[in-house]
Amino acid sequence: MIRMPGESFRGNLPPLTQFEATLRDSLRRHVEKLANDIGERNYLHYKGLVRAADFLDTSFAEAGYSVKQQGYTIDNKTYYNLEVEIPGTERPDEIVIIGGHYDSVYNSPGANDNGTGAAATLEVARLFAGKKPARTLRFVEFVNEEPPFFFSENMGSLVYAKSCKKRNEKIVAMLSLETMGYYSDQIGSQKYPAPLDAVYPLQGNFIAFIGNVASSSLVRDVVASFRSHTQFPSEAAALPGEISGVSWSDQWSFWQQGYPGIMVTDTAPFRYPYYHTQQDTADKVDYERFARVVAGE
């Protein structure tokens, strides 16, 4: 479950390409908009959540997409998942979903968690605009991932995944983009839940691809693809969902419906010292390394 194809990149990172530099600047603007301009966005700061949804909706539309809003009501307030789609040209019934949640935890501006995931979803969608993929591609900004909705029937991604199942949709892969922007070369900067601390690197300078055991084939395919064309450190594992952290994002919702899903992450609380705090601000994000990861997707 932890032996993966290919090898993680080692050594000095090459200079950013012009494409990566442009991507870096776009990602920075999105994260700063969400964390600095809008700020806290959750059920207790509903206006911030609405402003974030409006920003994401407009950004998708500016990239040429028609945005579908999936609304649902909690305590007389409506919350929205935002979806855009590119129909597949060869296997349109096979659907790949790339998404991240745009809400922030209470009392945090949520720059890395999960402004980075929301921004990455926008940018990957923009990069695919006008392309003709073999499978159908869907990009989704999910609401209400954070407590008190986490692991509940009102978690935005679970509402969405249940609707997919009800329509008998064939989702062949779900990539949850979660807390992706913090990196450190310092020895000891990376922590793990036991027993993984005996296996993986002690430097928090890599991107991780994490799935449950049922999603092991997807984990292997994704990390193999990333390593084949991206010069950036990467680690991957397919693990029991009961291990601390493995299920802590929107891929969990898709597992509940029998769909394969993985989390793409900097490992959040196992590395990021500002996780779920007021200090999760836009200046903490390493935009150069973040851009390299998004370019590699």
- Helical fraction: 25-40%
The residue ranges in which pLDDT falls below 50 over 5 or more consecutive positions are none
Nearest-integer average pLDDT: 97
The N- and C-terminal alpha carbons lie at a distance of: 22 Å
Helical stretch tally? 7
As laid out across the biggest beta sheet, the strand order is 1-2-4-3-5-8-6-7
What Rg do the Cα atoms give?
Answer: 18 Å
CATH architecture: 3-Layer(aba) Sandwich
Determine the strand fraction and express it as a percent band.
15-25%
Order of helices and strands: HHEEEHEHEEHEHEH
Largest sheet: 8 strands, mixed
In CATH terms, what is the fold-level topology?
Aminopeptidase
Task: Please identify which CATH superfamily we are dealing with.
Answer: Zn peptidases
Counted up, domains total 1
Question: How many beta-strand elements?
Answer: 8
Shape: globular
Q: Which secondary-structure class do the elements indicate? A: alpha/beta
Task: Please identify the top-level CATH class.
Answer: Alpha Beta
